[in-house]
Amino acid sequence: MNPTSAPAGRWTRFRDSYLLYSFKRDVIAQLSLVAFILLLGVAVLAPWLSPTDPYDLTTIDIMASELPPFWIAGSDEAYVLGTDAQGRDLLSTILYGARVSLIIGFGAVALQATLGVCFGLLAGYLGGRVDAFLMRLADIQLSFSTLMVAIVVGALVKAIFGGDTFGAYAVPLLVVIIGLAEWPQYARTVRASVLAEKAKEYVDAARVMGLSSRRIMFRHILPNTLSPIFVISTVQVANAIISEAALSFLGLGMPETQPSLGSLIKSGFDYLQSGSWWITLIPGAVLVMLVLVINLLGDWLRDVLNPRLYKG
Amino acid sequence: MNATESLRHSDAHSPLLEVRGLEKHFSLSGDFLEQLRFDKGRLVRRQEYVHAINGVDLTIQRGEALCVVGESGCGKSTVARTVMGLLKPSAGEVRYDGERIDDLSTRSLLPYRRRMQMIFQNPYASLNPRMTIQETLEEPIRLHHPQWSRQAIRDKVHEVMISVGVAPDWGNRYGHEFSGGQRQRIAIARALAVDPEFIVADEPISALDVSIQAQVLNLLMEARQERHLTYLFITHDLAVVEHFGTRVAVMYLGRVCEIADTATLFAHPRHPYTKALMSAIPRLEDDRPQHIRLEGEVPTPVHLPSGCVFHGRCPHANERCRREIPSLITTDNGAQVACHAIEEDRIS
């Protein structure tokens, strides 16, 4: 196997694949991908793109609070999308907020996927008691709603360690809470695919070869269950972002000093009636758009990778 | 290299594989809660089993090609899978080269995995769709020869690919880019890559086109000559048996009813079931004996018949056949038959 031919082969296969063919013909998927990459780009590059640093309290001018966006009379041209109740530039805050939301979304999904894939592989491949135990655990986990678990854990941590500690560790804490609450989604999907793959003779061939269970699970079965994992991942990223926003809105998520989109919406909510609607609605629109494009991409992927429509 | 290695363990006359009293049951009843039933107001636990194999004895000598034949559902594939350790037997034992292997752990089985390999029925499912042919073939070599250099592994893959008639420069293609016959050749190459001495082939040609079947069968026969292989060959195709096998075991409902040399069995089938089976082979001659038409159906393996499994359909069955399970007896022409009627000289 010469090293130059393998990547070339992979590229040709991608170029000839049904995935790309279907993508070229689906305008919604294309627009969603462009919008998603755009949002992802500005969120990742927030520290370089945003006009001010919303985490830096020295740049905040309380006199400049509640300024409207540029198209409304009374706006300040330094603040394109206006300012929030504390005088932070809304555009910068949204960019940083989208960053926090995406970090939590992807982090939580990475944790969910790791746990869910491992448990699903073990349950499906080993079967028997391991399977029964892990799946009952998943049932129990699923019978608590994500928000309820998150509220209880968040409130406990806040009560025990205080708001400051909570604020300092808010991002990893939210990743862990949302990640732990949703792993059964992965475990169930992976287990179902593993059961289907396990019945195929290539798994028997690997066992006859003498390979260890771990190698068979991760090297042989896992690569063949990637399509459904990929599809639920997109949906789960959107779900995790929504969960984080809901928690932040309830005051159990990101603190106001390092706002996510959810806590921005919450902080503006109190001023909605007093006419400063932009503090809530603009981050809200960004959140809706982010979740929408991820879900649209997920829908498209699910259609493309559906083995009933296309086998590969 | 292999010949000396395997001969060190034992002398050439002891059997390579011995199967004694092998049984395999599959539970039909699901988990514990599903087994509970109300029967006349009482809670009882009821378990039902499919008796896939019920007491199979086989002995395979070095260099033999033992064919196991029988109709669908008679347990021949289960025998193959139990011998290979893919299934744990419910009772009985499997001995390889004198050592019991059916109760070994995955780790302690590893030395045997190199010596015994398996070829599967469906070449469309037996190659991992996400691995290239090169990766598929390198994997067993790397596992069993961890000290080999990359070049040695590549040379070995090259050698087995040529020996099964697949061009070595197709190595970085994926399984789905090949036809069924080529895939089966690759699956054979994978089995041969670790230089085994014993190969279990579970209907290796029945999923292939008729035009390809002969090629693959010839490939297996060449491999047997060149590599001194011993085969356990599962098939339902009697023409293949006549062509390929040195000995034949006929199975019915999870039991062996007759084992004989291929020539003996085809010339003088003894067991009533074997006779019926042989008479079903389409022949060109005019003077062949009347086709034997068996009454009824194969009984379900869930509720096994008492006594001889064949008694319900056997024209020679008597009271003893309904009561007592016949064991294999050696007859005058060397064939082993499990039949009371032959033991009692009621039939020839």
From TrEMBL, chain A:
Question: What GO terms describe the biological role, i.e. biological process, of this protein?
Answer: transmembrane transport
Q: Which domain of life is it from?
A: Bacteria
Segment forming the signal sequence: none
Q: Can you supply one Gene Ontology CC term for this chain's record? A: plasma membrane
**ABC transmembrane type-1 domain mapped to chain residues:** 98-298
InterPro entries linked: BP-dependent_transpt_permease, MetI-like, MetI-like_sf, OppC_N
Describe its membrane topology: Multi-pass membrane protein
Q: Which PANTHER family match?
A: ABC TRANSPORTER PERMEASE PROTEIN, OLIGOPEPTIDE TRANSPORT SYSTEM PERMEASE PROTEIN APPC
Protein's recorded name: Peptide/nickel transport system permease protein
Its source organism is Aidingimonas halophila
From TrEMBL, chain B:
What range(s) does the ABC transporter domain occupy?
36-278
Q: Does the keyword Manganese apply?
A: no
* Protein name (database record): Peptide/nickel transport system ATP-binding protein
NCBIfam families, sorted: oligo_HPY (TIGR01727)
Q: Which InterPro entries match?
A: AAA+_ATPase, ABC_transp_ATP-bind, ABC_transporter-like_ATP-bd, ABC_transporter-like_CS, Oligopep_ABC_C, P-loop_NTPase
> The organism sits in which domain of life?
Bacteria
Which organism does this record belong to?
A: Aidingimonas halophila
Q: Which GO terms describe its molecular function?
A: ATP binding; ATP hydrolysis activity
Keywords for this protein? ATP-binding, Nucleotide-binding, Transport
Indicate the family of this protein: Belongs to the ABC transporter superfamily.
Q: Which is a GO BP term held by this UniProt record? A: peptide transport
